[in-house]
Amino acid sequence: MRQWIHRGAVVFCLVLAACGVDKPKELLEIAEFEERQMNLPHAKQLYEDVIRLYPTSKEATKARTRLAALKHGQ
Length: 74
What we know:
Oligomer: single chain
Strand content: under 5%
Distance between the termini: 29 Å
C-alpha cells in the first residue's frame, strides 16, 4: 500500500512540475521529496538534472550542496 501512495505522490509532483512556471524550483522540490522518501538514486538524478538544466539558478546551488552531502553519506 505504501508503495502505491509513494508512486502516486511522485506522479502528482511530476504533473505539478509540468504545469508550473518555476521549473528549477519545482524540480528541486521533487528531488527533496525523493530524498525524504529515501529514494536516493532518483533524488541524486533529479539534483543532477537541476544542475545540468539550470546551472546558474539558486536551485542549482542548493542541488550541488545536497548532491555533495549525499555523495559523502550525509
